[in-house]
UniProtKB/TrEMBL annotation:
Protein's name in the database: Acyl-CoA dehydrogenase family protein
Cofactor(s) listed in the protein's UniProt record: FAD
Acyl-CoA dehydrogenase/oxidase C-terminal domain segment(s): 240-386
Similarity remark: Belongs to the acyl-CoA dehydrogenase family.
Annotated ranges, domain Acyl-CoA oxidase/dehydrogenase middle: 137-227
Annotated SUPFAM superfamilies: Acyl-CoA dehydrogenase C-terminal domain-like, Acyl-CoA dehydrogenase NM domain-like
Pfam families: Acyl-CoA_dh_1 (PF00441), Acyl-CoA_dh_M (PF02770), Acyl-CoA_dh_N (PF02771)
Keyword Cytoplasm recorded: no
PANTHER family per the UniProt record, alphabetical: GLUTARYL-COA DEHYDROGENASE, MITOCHONDRIAL
Organism: Streptantibioticus rubrisoli
Keywords, in A-Z order: FAD, Flavoprotein, Oxidoreductase, Transit peptide
Domain (Acyl-CoA dehydrogenase/oxidase N-terminal): residue spans on this chain: 20-133
Amino acid sequence: MSSAPPFEPSDPLGLDDLLSDEDRAVRDTVRRWTADRVLPDIAEWYERGELPGIRELARELGAIGALGMSLDGYGCAGASAVQYGLACLELEAADSGIRSLVSVQGSLAMYAIHRYGSEAQKQQWLPRMAAGEVIGCFGLTEPDHGSDPAGMTSYAKRDGTDWVLTGRKMWITNGSVAGVAVVWARTDEGVRGFVVPTDAPGFSAPEIRHKWSLRASVTSELVLDDVRLPADAVLPEVTGLRGPLSCLSHARYGIVWGSMGAARSCFEAALDYAKSREQFGRPIGAFQLTQAKLADMAVELHKGILLAHHLGRRMDAGRLRPEQVSFGKLNNVREAIEICRTARTILGANGISLEYPVMRHATNLESVLTYEGTVEMHQLVLGKALTGLDAFR
């Protein structure tokens, strides 16, 4: 009878056994990239409230296959859903802003074009976006319409063979550095998506400042002032809210994994600190209360990773439902925030210092908790699925 392998504090459930060699190669590639290009500078970027060199970072992410990586063709990597999730986990272990850059590029802007665009739109945009040569953004949220996108007021009207697009979008990641925006607007036919080159007359994207979360991320408003677009700017394969909502479901899946990356970073910082910080003549990790915190953090962290892996396998099998994505987003982001807050208590006063990643991750996750569906929205999605009763209206 073979003996069990040794217990690994970094992988207490042995979840690494669930991964193929290719899965591990993807994970390790992204981990090495973040260690080289993000972790040495992220605290300074966060403190300054900027993401310098974002276009160069995008090209590097394209070079390692991280942009639109779960899409097929057009220069995309064609990776599995699990591999994309592992990449999101490693990116967000560095910073939520870096994962947001990749998620918006691949799971929102590129996904929308890939799934609902014409062949000409795919050929025009996807290869350059996959390479990081063009950054994309996704315009759905409006200043007065966040959780209820059906209330959007942005409007596109026909003028001859052209479209004229007017409106405002808010809290748009990558907005001011994007070369192309996928913008959703009302039309006489219903909600439609438009592929908008950001150099089009009437388009502007003022950057949003004074953020205390996602500070190392570009966040903008989109202003569309009678932007004239040709007839072929519309995404031809979808009408109605199912278009943007399906894109959001794809992006939320990445958050299920990514939030566990932020949680892992905080847990590792707390564990290392507990073993080295001495009080009352011994490491604080030797005290029962600290060990109880670490045990609870480890349980929720690895349960969350296991949940993400399960959802990834379902996505790869074509069996993942939007309600299951809501399940994962609701649980994992909520637990990730709690892990970060508990890690902060272990680090004491040092927990608020940017010398450690804990407070940065905790404040970032406050945004992740809200965007792409608040806690309340995902609770109502699950409540409707469980009861068959719609509580949204």
